[in-house]
Structure formats: C-alpha cells, structure tokens
Specification:
By secondary structure, the chain is an all-alpha fold. The protein is built from ten helices and no strands. Helix content is 63%, strand content 0%.
Length: 232
C-alpha cells in the first residue's frame, strides 16, 4: 500500500503460538518458585514441589530466548526498584532440566547468567567470568558487570574480574564498565572502594595502544616526507 499511496501498510496477523508456549512456561516457573519459597519458609518438604514437566529439547533457540526473556520480565521489579529473585533451588531445577549453563548460544547463556546473577546464585560466577572474558561485546558484558556489581555476593568478584581483564576489552567498553561500577549507588566496603578508585586512575591513563598508534602515525608521516623530499 505504501508503495502506491499514503499511510501505514496493513498490520499482518502474526501467529504467536510458539511465543505463547514459552511465556506460559515462564509463568509456570515463576509460580513454582513461589511454592518453593513458601515451602522453605514453612519448613515443608521442598522436594514435594514439582517443576513444570515441559520438554524443551525440540524448541528452537528463539523459543528458549523468548522463555528466558519472559522469566526476566516477570521478575523485573520487586516494588523497590530492584529485580525479584528466583530461589536457588528453583534455578537448580531449571538448570537440571534445561542445561542452560552449557549452552553454546551466547543469547541463551547471557540471559540465563543474568537470571542467576540477579538471584544471587554464586555458583554461576565462574561461567559468567568465562563468558565475559572470552568475548567483548558490550551488549553482553556491560549488563552482566552491572548485575554482578548490584548483587551483594558478586560485587567484589565483578571488580576483581574487571581489574584482571580490563586490557582485554576495547578502550570504550572498558571505560563504560568502569563508569558503571564507579557511579553505582550500591554500598561498598572501604577495601572495594579503593579498588574502584584504581579503576578510575587506570582509565585516566592512555592505554599503550594509543602511544603505539601515535608513534606509528609519526613514522608514516616521516616516511612520506622523506619520500617526497627525494623526488624533489
């Protein structure tokens, strides 16, 4: 229509069957998590709470991503400006059934790591560390660093990991991550504060690549100047 006239093209009718299955499963897991928390608080047998019996082995990567996005959305706000948390036992059941920690798909692994970090599951930290130190895409590493720094159990781990691997990242990525951690409002002990100050100091110094780039530029200009002088 818009090729031959004005206005917006007609809205197609999308089939949401697959998305609805993923969203329904996400809601089921959040509901189960509430039962797990209630059983834990009342000292009942948590083993009596059965997880959703839905096999996702044949699901596409897109469906699994949709499922994790739906879970994260359902846990978006606890009413105090912080994301809600899944109980560790719920995460253990989810990992046991779906094996998200072993996923080779970066989009799936990233979302599960976000879910586990915000739920204070410290067992995920080695996997997160491997993930954020073997590739430097800001769409993955920056949210994960922010999530770890916002968690009480992962704050120091985030700072130590960044200080150890900051030279691996692109200078812009390193600066943005450092900014996130130095500007965060979360309370932190004095030892951690000194480490964060070291991040700022390190960011104020030009990296070696800058010096090498300047030197290479001068050498190139010198070679061009010498070549032009010989011709004249």
């Amino acid at each position: 229509m818009w090729l031959t006239g004005t206005g917006m093209p007609p809205l197609p009718s999308f089939n949401r069957v697959l998305a609805e299955k993923a969203e329904s499963l996400a809601q089921a897991w959040v509901d189960i998590d509430q039962e797990v928390k209630q059983s834990h608080e009342s000292f009942k047998q948590i083993s009596d709470v059965e997880p959703p019996k839905v096999n996702i082995d044949e699901w596409t990567s897109g469906q699994k991503i949709c499922f994790l996005d739906a879970v994260l959305k359902l846990l978006q706000d606890d009413g105090k400006g912080h994301p809600k948390k899944l109980h560790i036992l719920t995460l253990e059941q989810m990992q046991k059934m779906y094996g998200f920690q072993q996923s080779q798909n970066a989009e799936i692994l990233f979302r599960y790591c976000m879910l586990a970090v915000q739920s204070e599951d410290s067992s995920i930290y080695p996997i997160v560390q491997r993930f954020i130190t073997t590739q430097g895409r800001m769409k993955y590493i920056r949210p994960l660093y922010r999530a770890m720094f916002a968690s009480s159990s992962g704050r120091e781990f985030a700072v130590d990991t960044f200080l150890k691997h900051k030279d691996f990242y692109h200078p812009i990525a390193a600066k943005m991550i450092a900014y996130d951690m130095t500007m965060a409002r979360e309370p932190r002990p004095e030892v951690l504060s000194s480490k964060i100050k070291n991040i700022l100091i390190g960011m104020q110094r030009p990296p070696n690549s800058v010096y090498m780039g300047v030197a290479a530029t001068f050498l190139t200009l010198g070679a061009i100047f010498m070549s032009t002088s010989r011709r004249t």
